[in-house]
Fold:
Amino acid sequence: MTPATRYTLAQDNGWWWLVTPDGERLFSISVNHLGALSRNNAAQRVAAALDCPQDQLWDRVTQHLTSLGCNTLGYDAPDALRQTLPYFADTTQHEAMHCLPGTSFAYADVFDPAEQQRITDAVQAACEAHRDRPNLIGYFWTDTPRWNLDTARRERATDWVTTLRRLGPDALGKRVYIDFLRETYANDVAEFARTYRLNITSFDDLPAHDFAYLELTWPAVRRDDEAFLARIADTLYRVTADAFHHHDPGRLLCGERYKSHDHHDGVLRAAAKYTDVLSIQDGPEVGPMPGPGKHESAFDAAYYDRLHELTGKPVLICDHNVSFKTESQPVTLWHACDTAEQAAELNANYLHAAAATPHILGYGRCQYLSVFDPQRRLLKQGLLNEDGNPYPTSNGALTRAIADALAHRQALATA
Structure:
């Protein structure tokens, strides 16, 4: 493929757009997790509910999505659908994802050449799978990374900085961390020892320390942790971006899909150096199991304005939803309204406000087929119920909301 066949970005009078290979400007509207149709015999159930032969299911789903007003596919879409609509590829570079259970969650030593090679190999495999597909818009990176120090310490009892500084004396991450401290304190070991309350006479003594004693709330420690966290992100993103540029040059890099508020300014500044787009999943700040968290049922304009001002990048809202309670499933992943009508109104208001924001590139609706998550004991509610039948109120309201939002954005952008 040549660069002329790729999706790009454009800014016109302050309004950001995706640009198709044909030169058309696009505000992306998508639905995520269509891959659920390919798992657990879901395709058979949905085909039966839609009263169509199974070999015609993907055509029927495409028709359904386009009838709603969707013009792209979000992440996690079956290959059959990627042949019919533009899509974002989802890729993974590390295992520090907020949704993973404790046995799978891990912070990697991104300074280790072996880990960097593993990242590069994973990127190469992703590019080989997607780069020749004409409908590919760009690449998402790791899903919902747990960067925020406070959230990580609360939910995981550790964080990326703590993980690296507590590695063994020969680990690259530990060595880089010590060099960072030496640089931060201008090689003044006495000043560092006073600040960290350590009885040492040389920075060369630090590899033997596991820092288990460290009080993370000390102001200087917090300042240093935030600075080193940004250095971790910079290294991870540089290695990742270099691999994508090598294996699929010119393709849009949409970066990690951050949970709203679960990030750090230094991490976002690092991301802005290496990605084209800032991607945000707006919604409940929960861990892998049910728990309290923010439910973003209203578009937070100030939050998104700040993200754009901080990074200079357009923002893609890559996952969002407001659910409603049903008799069989009153607990949902997203904020659950009492009625479908209430949820539809909140979703429409959110989409309308997002589309009316110049630096927002698009909106991804969470979930097509409703799926019960037994681990978290909740419903990931989509546009179809678990049997594959469409929720009438949700689908009709979404069609109107998409049409209104796109028309409003176009009117504002051309005024």
User: Anything to note?
Assistant: The chain has 13 helices and 14 strands. Residues 219-247 form the longest helix (29 residues). The radius of gyration is 23 Å. The longest strand covers residues 136-143.
